[in-house]
Amino acid sequence: MSYSEDEVKNLAELREWFDKQINEKEDEVQRLKMTLMIIDNTLKQASFKPAVMIDQRTDKESEYSDVKQLKSKDDVILANVYTVSNSITIIPISDMKFNVNTPPFQSFFINRILEGMKSKDKEYVERREIELSNTINYNVDDENGLIKKIVINNYRDMERLNEIINTASWVFSRMLEKTR
Predict the structure, then answer these.
(1) For the segment 22-60, what is each residue's pLDDT rounded down to a tens digit?
(2) Based on the structure, what is the number of domains in the chain?
(3) How confident is the model over 129-150, as pLDDT tens digits?
(4) Is there a contact between 94 and 114 (Cβ–Cβ < 8 Å)?
(5) Which domain holds residue 111?
(6) Is the pTM of this model over 0.90?
(7) Please, which residues bridge with residue 70 across strands?
(8) In degrees, to the nearest 5, what angle opens at C-alpha 138 toward C-alphas 136 and 143?
(9) Same domain, 104 and 137
(10) Paired residues of 153 in beta bridges
(11) In angstroms, rounded to a whole number, what is the distance separating the alpha carbons of residues 118 and 90?
């Protein structure tokens, strides 16, 4: 079967239109899924407010889009992780006394993971892929060496967020083993 040049051109344009429609629908589905996740998390929060959120809430921390628990292999709750927009706050539970000097906190979590991400961001800034204001930064709030909370801003993507959460869980588990 032979097609004229106009028919082939029309088919190519139609294919391009369908491809564009599929991409737009996929984007819409992703936005809908993200909105649904936010609604689900909001519903979870509305029915359960951890005491630490009530006691230590600030304006910035008042609306979390996600709340997770960090647990050890033997299911001991180590800390709570609160996520809001592009910032996470890790707060050890009150029973846990994690010292900033207990390995591998400084050597692995801070120096290798967070400083590694910071270094990568400096490269992105130099290549003008991101603004300086969008680089990752963090603050470890401690009292007499005991970690009260860790705030990490500008993690920027889910891969980094997951790496931070998974690493924090592993690091806190190792720290707990060293203090037992």
Answers:
(1) 888 877 777 677 677 777 666 666 655 444 444 444 443
(2) 2
(3) 989 989 999 999 999 999 999 9
(4) no
(5) 51-179
(6) no
(7) 79
(8) 175
(9) yes
(10) 87, 137
(11) 18
